[in-house]
Amino acid sequence: MSENDVVTRTFRALVEGADRKFARVRDVPAYGRLPNQHYFHKVFKAYMRLWKYQQENRSKLVGAGLNRWEIGEIASRIGQLYFGQYMRTSEARFLIEAYVFYEAILSRNYFDGSAGSRGFGKKDIGVRFKELRFYARFLLVSLILNRTETVQLLAERFKSLVDNCKVNFRDTNFKEWRLVVQEIARFMKVDTAFMNVRPLRYSTLFDSNPASLPYVTRFHAKRVLKFQDALLTSYHRNEVKFAELTLDTFRMLQCLEWEPSGSFYQKRPVEPKENGVFIEHSGASVASGVIDLNLAADMTDPSLPPNPRKAVIYRPSVTHLIAVMATTCEELPLDSIMLVYLSASGKVDQSNTSQVYNSGGSQKSSKNKVPLQDQNKFLPESRINNKGQSSGYYDQYLWFGPRGNGGLNNLYPGDIIPFTRSPLFLVIDSDNSHAFKAGFTWSGKRRDSCSASFTYETSIQKSS
């Protein structure tokens, strides 16, 4: 067996091993403390070993038939792993590491057939789908990092790629990808107003020193609460979103983070050359194919506290939302407070319900829908007073659902009461938020822990 054969077989074995480990962590929920956190380190180690091996043996592997898109797929997986870790931990260094790998893929045209033809030739449909997924993931990372120039260039390139796919692969339906193009265009249009103003994140250029920020109000004589966990979700009809990040949760996510202030974050323009190849600004060498894996040291200000951990949930059912809140509260340290941001429509009048019930569905299914005036029949007796009326906790609600299912889609103020046993900072972004404020103001008179539920004026220090 020749040396090239040994290198190729070793490389393929490393790819298969890394892919098996990746499959085990790909769909792990981005909330809750993970008992097998050590396995994520194994996945990272496997891919870093694979990446280093292909760098050291690049010429032999290419000579044996290694395609450039296969190198891009490895780098894309590493970027996906880093982004997943950011969503689980909210550590900015993971987000920027993902950006570094994605930018390297783009600047080196790993998924393109030919730099001169902008990669729009007829190639394998499977590779083209990998390229589409890469663009969608890179767009999401760039959005969160507020790299607006990169987002605009990626959106244009992504749209051209989808249009080219429709022409070259007429037997394949690209409807879902066209919807993604529409999503990013709509998101950019709505968010344009924030492009030329100060960042939503805490920034050392505009805000006071972290040490001067007041602690959250003391609810106990010797207890100072620390902000370490947050749950963000929204559910509106036709809301602006990209992927599973809505505009509401996108802005809240940034409001709860520190602005990266390392030299990496100096926003330099990203411009395409005449042949369509993007100029690289990540510090990686195009010629050598080496990506700087030690860039994290120059990403963030070490004097800033870590970001609070955030669970961002896209359009959850009420039961799923309550389950995530329960998991987070169960794991919340005794000296910590959890922020819950809920953005959804509320019960103002009957029009909301009539729109929902008239928005579609068969006549047969409509018979199973529960009118609003009859929903109190299904409340437990403990929630109904002796006059047959429901208590204040179950009169009004937030709507988490597309249509139908009666009260199954309703989140009532009473549903959140069990979680007020721990300090809770609740933000309701709704036309019905007054119902929650009134309910928890009354409950706060009974228990000190509940009084933390609605403290709008309190400044929370993001510290560990």
TrEMBL record:
GO biological-process terms attached to the record: DNA-templated transcription
Segments of this protein annotated with the region Disordered: 351-371
Pfam families: SCAI (PF12070)
Superkingdom as given in the UniProt entry: Eukaryota
Bilayer-spanning residue ranges: none
Coiled-coil annotated spans: none
Gene Ontology molecular functions: transcription corepressor activity
Compositional bias segments (type: Low complexity): 358-369
Name the record gives this protein: Protein SCAI-like
Organism field: Pyrus ussuriensis x Pyrus communis
